[in-house]
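Changelog excerpt: complex records now keep ligands as SMILES alongside chain sequences, and the structure block spans every component. Example after the change:
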Amino acid sequence: MINIIVCVKQILDPEMPPGKFKIDPESNKVIPPEGIPLVVSPFDEQAVEAALRIKEQCGAKITVVTVGESSAVNAVKHSLAMGADEGIVVEHIIEGYDSLLTAYILTKAIEEIVAYDLIICGREAADWGSGQVGSIIAESLGIPVVARTRKIEVMDSRLKVEHIIEDGDESLELPMPAVITVSYEIGQARIPTGWGVISAARKKIPSWSLEDIGVDLSQIGDTSSRIKLLKLFTPTRERGCQIIEGKTAAEAAANLALRLREAKVI
Amino acid sequence: MAEYKGVLICGELIEGRLTGISKELLGIGRKLADDLGEELSILLMGSDLSNAAREAIACGANKVYIAAQPLLDNYHCDACTEVATNLCREIAPSVFLLGQTDMGRDIAPRIAARLKVALAVDCVELRIEPDTKLLIQTRPVYGGNALAEVVSVTHPQMATVRAKSMSPLEPDESRQGESIPVKVEVDIETMKIKLVERIKQPIEGVKLEDADAVVAGGAGIGSAGNFAMLEELAKLLKGAVGASRVPCQEGWVSQSIEIGQTGKIVTPNIYIAIGISGAVQHIAGCLGSKCIVAVNKDPDANIFKVADFGIVADYKEALPAFTEKCKEIIG
Ligand SMILES: Cc1cc2nc3c(=O)[nH]c(=O)nc-3n(C[C@H](O)[C@H](O)[C@H](O)COP(=O)(O)OP(=O)(O)OC[C@H]3O[C@@H](n4cnc5c(N)ncnc54)[C@H](O)[C@@H]3O)c2cc1C
Ligand SMILES: Nc1ncnc2c1ncn2[C@@H]1O[C@H](COP(=O)(O)O)[C@@H](O)[C@H]1O
């Protein structure tokens, strides 16, 4: 049996209707839309799914870790409901663009958990889309990392993974402990069962502070000593679409072709 | 920050030639270097790099760092991370740019971690702030719903750049530059990650990223078989077929033709989106197209917000007529 740690982040729903997306220009922050609950970042759900498949294949203990505000416990609960065994919330509100700090805190939390053979992260968090945290954790722990994998197989103390490359993929072997990041190619994440939800609700989820895991912010500096956010704004991109009509779909389509010819596009 | 100087690019090769994104990086790199009043360098890894080195100089580089090592012909993430990190330590560039490619996505975060610096990924705009001489980096976030302007306070200021967002320079063979060998002290045998095999999916016809016409299908296409209609149109327009996430996830088409934030970025003359709703993460991959055409049965689909031309119709009725008319027009 191996010990797997999965890092999950709670984010705004990335598939919310674009019209609901608003930014407060004063604070350079997204205004959380009312009535749209926060979700587990989709690739992180797939990271939990990948861990569960390994558990089914060869047995594993899965611990889920998140760094965020106290409500991030819901991301952990969702993962437990999917089938993860334990969960931890590291309570600290973090800027999504400070990957170094996020990874540093997660590394400290992982060291506190002690037992780990495999750490699974999402390919990128679907809010800031940095795609860095998994790789930085691996570098900090001095262990190998393969980003963007579509398949993971455990063979004793080694892993065989399929890594996505330009126009294909490659099959790689590496020793554990290791970090793997996964993407949607791993397959659909399972939906929690009713029983899963009930038992997750009953589970005690410890909340750790930065002091608990020996993170000293005065030592590593605040976010603005690494990267500063100058502006967050909505791009303008309405193009003013010309809808081409016709009595039937076929006629509209033929008219479209003619219009495109007129505009010298084809 | 006086000790950090110049702009360094991490080059990528295909069959001994610079890739498109590498030339785009040299284009923006040249501009940034000029604004700083400093030099532009590029790192090349592999064997037989003399042609690419000449190309790099013609495209704007002052210096080409040659990491000649036949083992690097085959991309190896550990080895490339090591070589690039070592060069950054040695020459201490002020700005270090990579492509937001498969390689850049793999190695940039690892290099940044080793150098303990911030990294802004997937930038679509880069400029030097005249007063501070710092690099202002603009990147899409929240799937493309927002743009963020950030500045790294650590050096080298690292960024990866989205394909097709920068313009390459017109190659000028008369440009002069210098090639400098780099010591490669990597032993792939001792690296933890071993390559077992590499499976390349053969590409028929035009490469999606380079195509002048892209016919893309989404969930609305409904099945693998129906993609044949799109193939026919793409062939007629001498273009390529692409897809949104759903057909890739469903296995109707190869995952390598996904267009969008997590897939490929295309900027053809004409992008025809069929049965695609136009989620922000998808249009992130095609917004740079000169003309976007949408075919969707839902008049409220988001795709119509970013399209230039559209028809509201069931594609099964519209597409055959469209292809037929195009045949007539193109002849
Ligand atoms: C972090 C993250 C990253 C993502 N990255 C990407 C990415 O890189 N690329 C990507 O594509 N997606 C990406 N997605 C997914 C994205 O959010 C959407 O879910 C996806 O693009 C939807 O694909 P679709 O438009 O094909 O499907 P749908 O949204 O289901 O739309 C199908 C459309 O087809 C129309 N339709 C149905 N039948 C017909 C018909 N017979 N004739 C005409 N029209 C018809 C419908 O009206 C509808 O508009 C990402 C999501 C996340 C969270
Ligand atoms: N605050 C967080 N808490 C837990 N895991 C995180 C957090 N931020 C990022 N991660 C993990 O790191 C991955 C990559 O994130 P990023 O580098 O921010 O795009 C995510 O998919 C998560 O697995």
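The mean pLDDT of chain B is 95. The two ends of chain B are 62 Å apart (CA to CA).
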